[in-house]
């Protein structure tokens, strides 16, 4: 047998093998990630959701993913590629993929798209997000109690409604327990850049912050706080338990697995419809990580009570009276915020200094 | 706005730290380009150095050995580039870009078991006497040793390039490799050594991120620092001292803009965010009289 014929046989065999593997009934699910899976935060949790889908359906599904896709035109290329490769359902997991998702979805009417944290839907584009601001309320409560300098540093990513909601929610609940509290906010203009996040945390600590809240994806601010020694942090998107019990005293954990499983099932059953899902602590999409013993027992108890009241719906994180930054009334006494205002939130509440970048 | 909350001493001190990874990577690339080779793989070599340094430091418990491992890791990756471009005569631009992609992937693979692990600490030096000088002491003389390694490297490379015969040979190879070859200099050997030196420096810069600046291993953690190092080499006109200025300027404005934001300065954040890039480009362009080495990125083969 010549080398050529051996090669030819091998190619035929490989072709047959992959052909047998690609079952016609297999549902293909694609995931577009904004950071690397190893970020220990946001993307890490989305990938846990992907693995849960695989574990749930086994050979009936095939999942594909692309990491570190920049928000912008390049995302469109990645999504188009996935759709062309036969994906039936594509999850695009960052706010900046909103317009690319809508554009690509228009070209592939038979493919279902799910866009995380956005607000634009279409016949084949559903949106989903978690009520992270409920977790921020618990964080703010603990932060307001823990700070001694009364300065809380906040590392923002991009000035979008989701991030602003988090700042407002954390501030309201910190001020509730500590009227003197002040927020220093730094916009990093990135979801993931460990060096920049570390620098931002260091700057905030140098300017007197002894609690750091982050809305970026890496664990770099945790490490910066740890180096400083007396600074409190919270895990973001993922538990970040390796930095507990101090500086990380608690965390917000995103749990996408139940949603990803349910939506994949809907595509398999042919019952998928567009819509908007926005679940919080109650539905389990937002989890509050273990509150460590570095937090005084009474604060821990009241934080857990707050978590439970948010969970069973007896308390809304935005309950009046709340004024906007300019002093005008936003929520009257006892009034709660409606989802429409929350989804497009573009203002600070009264007491926060500085302007939102426009 | 509350500018009084900015402590100028801490600001200047963190400037030196913020600039160091870029400085280390850029000074290595400067030598490579002066030898007439354009290696666009700085980002890939940095991140490989970051992970190699982290793995070695965690394994041995010694940050110094970590930096050694980072230099070796970066140099090995650069050697791959050297073999491809110098012996197999591949296109330098394409090979460099491929090296970046390869380095990002390779580092993610090596670093899989190291996510969330803490690096051994690398304490700051408090230099006796000098460190006690008021104001200047905390700014200049109380850093970790790698900050000074970066400074010493810049000085050493300036001296090497301008005051030694070896530097003259390296520059000759970079300016006109055919002439250098005709004079009997080993063009390929000089270039390979320069490429490996550049890789080692980039590795040190990456390890500075993973062992000192951040300090932990995260995939993709260099986040474009290698590209900034490349740009600074060009804007500095291939001159070591200007490169130092460019790196410090970039690091300084980066830290300053975060400080101004935290202090609540009423300048739109977008302008503050772009300011490090603009300030660095403007200053270095105004000063610029640099000229690219004559044989930069050209392929050399003795028979042509």
Overview of the structural elements:
The complex is a heterodimer of chains A (358) and B (304). Chain A has 358 residues and is an alpha/beta fold. Chain A is globular. The termini of chain A are far apart. Chain B has 304 residues and is an all-alpha fold. Chain B has a domain of 186 residues. Chain B is globular, with a radius of gyration of 20 Å. Chain B starts with 7 loop residues before the first helix and ends in a 17-residue tail after the last helix. At the A-B interface, strand 7, helix 7 and helix 8 of A face helix 1, helix 11 and helix 12 of B.
Which descriptors apply to this entry?
heterodimer; A: 358 residues; alpha/beta; Rossmann fold; 2 domains; six-stranded parallel β-sheet; six-stranded mixed β-sheet; 11 helices; globular; B: 304 residues; mainly alpha
CATH domain topology of the largest domain in chain A: Rossmann fold
Radius of gyration of chain B: 20 Å
Shape of chain B: globular
Helicity of chain B, as a percent range: 55-70%
- Structural class of chain B comes to mainly alpha
Rg result of chain A: 22 Å
Element string of chain B (H = helix, E = strand): HHHHHHHHHHHH
What is the SS-derived class of chain A? alpha/beta
CATH superfamily of the largest domain in chain A: Response regulator
The share of residues in extended strands of chain B comes to under 5%
Residues in β-strands, percent of chain A: 15-25%
- The helix count of chain A comes to 11
Question: In this structure, how is the largest beta sheet of chain A organized?
Answer: 6 strands, parallel
